Amino acid sequence: YAAVYPGIDLVYHGNQRLLEYDFLVAPGADPRAIGIRFQGARKLTVNRDGALVIGLGGSEVIEHAPVVYQEIGGQRQTVAGRYVLRGRGRVGFSVAEYDRRQPLVIDPTLVYSTYLGSGNDGGDAIAVDASGNAYVTGWTSSPNLPTTPGAFQTTLKGLSNAFVTKLNAAGSALVYSTYLGGGGSDSGAGIAIDAFGNAYVTGATSSSNFPTTPGAFQTTYGGGNWGGPYNVFVTKLNATGSALVYSTYLGGGCSGGDGIAVDAAGNAYVVGSTSSSNFPTTPGAFQTTSLSTVPAFVTKLNATGSALVYSTYLAGSGYEWGGGIAVDASGNAYVVGSTESPDFPTTQAALQTTFGGGTDAFVTKLNAAGSALVYSTYLGGSNYDYACGIAIDASGNAYVTGLTNSADFPTTPGAFQTTYAEIFVSKLSAAGSALVYSTFLGGGVYDSGYSIAVDASGNAYVTGRTYSPNFPTTPDAFQTTYGGGFDAFVSKLNAAGSVLLYSTYLGGNDDEQGHGIAVDASGNAYVTGYTGSSNFPTTPGAFQTTYTAGNWNGFVSKLSLGTSVFPGPVTTASLSGPLGNNGWYLGAVTVTLVATPGSSPVSATYY
């Protein structure tokens, strides 16, 4: 709608089948002219996160704090802005100083984005709790990484340490932040949280004095070997980040944990790789010995970290790498990684029982006792394929992402992108016997998928890195143009894998990589990684808005992508409700949508 206020246009557009609006303020126009009235609102407030809360009696509508920006010289420049209350049910915007010679956009899509670090830091994994707090782990060699008073470890020890940081829901402050390490080199690679806010972390350490706890499964360093000095560690931090609930080594030399999951009982499930000749396995586990010099492993620790519930190798006769893990409500563990073994263990009737060549991804489901494979399959073509991340839905379907050099990597008809690119996103059936969908994703120049999450509607959220100036983005994306070097990306695929609901670059003019992604119940995506860009996009009021000189800074970004509950394109739509004499609906209107013929209708009633 043109000129709804002097020099200000109002643009409505779809965003993941949600209606969104932007105000476009022309050069010289005054954004203070914007005024919005919410008819029927009982109360209007602006909460501490800057969001507008519209009270409707027994319920509330919340509009996220606006993101205000200008596009200048091909770069997005953020401008501080917020909602202001103007009385009598009216709301407007307050905007800080900006270049009035350039257009201004007021848009509520990027919730927050912050640097995290002080020169040599990176985020590798992220989790989110029910309150929207983000938990991040990674690596740092910075002696002045921001920590919090009372945190478990406030100083750097050794060359590098892992870290664990909890950000509040607004991304404006640290709930806690702690180093985690000893006198060698340590890095965090995987993080999970339980219902009580305890954080479970795994990674690799070369520190003989890595912090462990009395009674933990392995309190002494396992040493190094020809492959390197690293041992796996598994640590559980309490909800305030002030103390270790437990912390243990796991195995001997050249071992590393790459992913971790936790069940409702507090058992921790870890996946990784090892070349340790004495890596601990348990009697009755699926595979207690290995022909591989570098096998993958899957280990389940009890809730106190004092004993192994099970521990098994997962390997053929070649090299394996364990990349990601998820666990379902029954305690079955879903594992992905990569294998060079033509004799990697697979199961009858699995999707792909023969080795494709080069390196194949694998997807394996272990039973709750760790004694047998529910299914196990290769996933790949004739060249090199690597699976990095896995997520599962309530039905037991597995969602996998990674990178491929195989032009013949398996895709499915109707998938979003069936022509070759270097990222793949595949959804396997609950039995592991078929692809629900499988698609390439990318522009074809050094693209990698590193992490994946899934929402309750079966939409898949993927992050990684891209060097492609033609990486597929959506028109409503936060950043539709390539920033330079490697950019991080965030993409959302629908449940059928046929439509890209949202896709954006996330980066400045140097290198970025997105390494971890999580999604909350509202469809917000939380992303962590690392950046070398001093102009990485941040938001006003975020914890750290300036880049600290060095090789890398970590970053944490929250994007509001919404939820998609409708299964496909609308073929039939109808309205029903009482009509007044003037043709307006009175009191309530019911909207009914039908997708493909024969599918169940989706209805909602608005009052």
- The count of DSSP E runs of length 2 or more, i.e. the number of strands, is 42
Distance between the termini: 25 Å
Strand order of the largest sheet: 1-2-11-7-8
Please work out how many helical segments DSSP would assign: 0
Q: What's the overall average pLDDT, rounded?
A: 89
Low-confidence stretches: 563-568
Helix coverage percent of residues?
Answer: under 10%
Radius of gyration: 25 Å
How would a crystallographer describe the biggest sheet?
5 strands, antiparallel
Quick one: overall form?
Answer: globular
Strand fraction equals over 45%
- The secondary-structure class comes to mainly beta
Which features characterize this protein?
0% helix; 607 residues; five-stranded antiparallel β-sheet; four-stranded antiparallel β-sheet; single chain; mainly beta; globular
Secondary structure layout plus pairing:
Elements: E1 8-15, E2 18-25, E3 36-37, E4 43-46, E5 52-55, E6 60-63, E7 67-72, E8 75-79, E9 81-87, E10 90-95, E11 104-107, E12 110-116, E13 121-128, E14 134-140, E15 161-167, E16 174-180, E17 186-193, E18 199-205, E19 231-237, E20 244-250, E21 255-262, E22 268-274, E23 296-301, E24 308-314, E25 320-327, E26 333-339, E27 360-366, E28 373-379, E29 385-392, E30 398-404, E31 423-428, E32 435-441, E33 448-454, E34 460-466, E35 487-493, E36 500-506, E37 512-519, E38 524-531, E39 553-560, E40 572-576, E41 589-594, E42 602-606
Antiparallel strand pairs: 1-2, 2-11, 3-10, 4-5, 5-6, 7-8, 7-11, 9-10, 12-39, 13-14, 14-15, 15-16, 17-18, 18-19, 19-20, 21-22, 22-23, 23-24, 25-26, 26-27, 27-28, 29-30, 30-31, 31-32, 33-34, 34-35, 35-36, 37-38, 38-39, 40-41, 41-42
